[in-house]
Design a protein that fits this description.
The complex is a heterodimer.
Chain A (H helix, E strand, L loop, with lengths): L2 E5 L6 H12 L4 E4 L10 E4 L19 H11 L3 E5 L1 H8 L6 E3 L7 E9 L15 E8 L3 E3 L2 H9 L3 E5 L12 E5 L5 E4 L15 H13 L1
Parallel strand pairs in A: 1-2, 1-3, 3-4, 4-11
Antiparallel strand pairs in A: 5-8, 6-7, 6-9, 9-10, 10-11
Chain B lengths: L1 E8 L6 H12 L11 E7 L5 H16 L5 E7 L1
Antiparallel strand pairs in B: 1-2, 1-3
The chains are: A alpha/beta, B alpha+beta.
């Protein structure tokens, strides 16, 4: 599997996710600058966490319109998979590659802690390494992870099995509707989630549940 | 021309910032304050003399970037 990680000014999880991807694929991913208009060969494109463009205007709003995103949209149409983590998820919603929006946490506080997530679907490449209904542990670190969408969109997401991860009952850290932590698009090629799989990809991290996401992608897309 | 865009969260969308401001105002002795909604103001200088053209351009800017219509409303003043 060939992978690329997009680096925006203000990304801060790009190197962590590059390491996690490299561990799964056996080779470092291409690092692509936000101003680039061309992407290298990539079966998987990762939009990493951080504070792209300083979170100016809205989280992910500027990054969604950066030159590289036009190339990302083209690659999605051509069949590439795109994974947006945390700020990457916010960018995907601002770019309209995923529906809904991510609002300020209901608590008004930045949350930074491991959370328990239920794997709601193992359809598609992103979660094929997990068991349906399995509970996994990944860290979150965000101030704006409160997922929301209009009722019709929400009904469609739920009805089509596109809610991929849900915070386990009673542990929702941000007030997101239906405890949603991650969703995918109608094609299953684009997934965004607030928790950080790359921060749970080595034994020293305390969990390797995140590594399995990348391993599953490699198995599927190799 | 100048344009002034006001972006606010839609009715019904939780506004934690507005809530915090409301709580702070109550703490300062303003019990008459009810719901508080916070937003942002964006001022634009436009190289444009036609009022209608200016408004149409700013509308497009709002839809494309300045507001996220999933959760926000906008209002435009042209002067």
């Amino acid at each position: 599997m060939h992978a690329a990680v997009v680096v925006f000014p203000g990304s801060n999880c790009d190197r962590d996710v590059a390491l996690a991807v490299a561990r799964a694929t056996g080779r470092p991913p291409a690092m692509v600058w936000h101003g680039d208009t061309d992407l290298p060969r990539a079966d998987l494109i990762v939009l990493p966490g951080g504070f792209s463009y300083g979170d100016y205007l809205r989280c992910g709003a500027m990054a969604a319109h950066s030159p590289v995103m036009r190339a990302v949209v083209e690659r999605v149409k051509a069949g590439a998979r795109v994974l947006g983590i945390c700020n990457g998820f916010q960018i995907l919603t601002e770019a309209r590659l995923l529906p809904g929006a991510l609002l300020r946490n209901a608590s008004r506080k930045f949350v930074c802690r491991p959370v328990s997530l239920r794997v709601e679907t193992t359809n598609g490449e992103f979660t094929r390494a997990y068991a349906p209904g399995e509970t996994i542990r990944l860290p979150v670190a965000h101030g704006e992870g409160n997922y929301t969408a209009d009722p019709e969109t929400l009904a469609r997401l739920e009805g089509e099995g596109r809610v991929v991860f849900r915070y386990v009952d009673g542990t929702n850290p941000n007030g997101s509707v239906n405890d949603i932590a991650g969703i995918m698009d109608a094609t299953g090629r684009v997934m965004g989630l607030m928790p950080h799989p790359e921060r749970a990809s080595e034994a020293i991290h305390g969990s390797t549940d995140g590594a399995r996401m990348f391993e599953g992608l490699v198995e599927a897309l190799a | 021309m100048k344009a002034r865009v006001t972006v606010t969260l839609k009715r019904g969308v939780l506004d934690p910032q507005g809530k915090a401001i409301g709580n702070a105002l109550h703490g300062l002795g303003f019990p008459q304050v009810g719901e508080v909604r916070a937003g942002k103001v964006i001022e634009l200088d436009l190289a444009e003399t036609d009022h209608e053209k200016a408004r149409a351009a700013v509308e497009e800017m709002c839809r494309k970037l300045l507001a996220n219509l999933v959760v926000e409303d906008y209002a435009i003043e042209i002067a």
